[in-house]
Specification:
mainly alpha, about 100 residues, single chain, about 70% helix, globular, 4 helices
Length: about 100
């Protein structure tokens, strides 16, 4: 695979994850669903679901922009250098950091 195709693939994979987060944010803005109820509530059984859902919940435009830009860049690096385990890195990053906060 040439470098341009590899870069395009890496960008698409990382941008897809960022787009998924943006979709949840837009749904939160335009629907009656209050996604903040799915946030992480430390030391409560109800809040344990937030370990998996909290990375997709953002409170403002600034919040999602400030998270999306680094996530896009770091996601591209993960997919470029660790292609075989990139999605596992995403999964375990969400689970481990969520459990630490919980």
């Amino acid at each position: 695979m040439n470098q341009e195709a590899k870069f395009g693939s890496v960008f698409l994979k990382s941008a897809s994850f960022v787009a998924l987060i943006a979709v949840f944010y837009l749904l939160d803005l335009v629907s009656d669903i209050n996604f903040s109820s799915f946030g992480l509530l430390p030391r409560s059984f109800k809040g344990l679901l937030g370990v998996f859902t909290s990375p997709f919940i953002h409170g403002s435009n600034e919040h999602i922009i400030n998270n999306s830009i680094p996530l896009l860049i770091l996601g591209m690096a993960i997919h470029y250098f660790y292609r075989e385990v990139a999605w596992k890195i995403y999964f375990w990053s969400i689970v481990i950091t969520g459990l630490w906060v919980w």
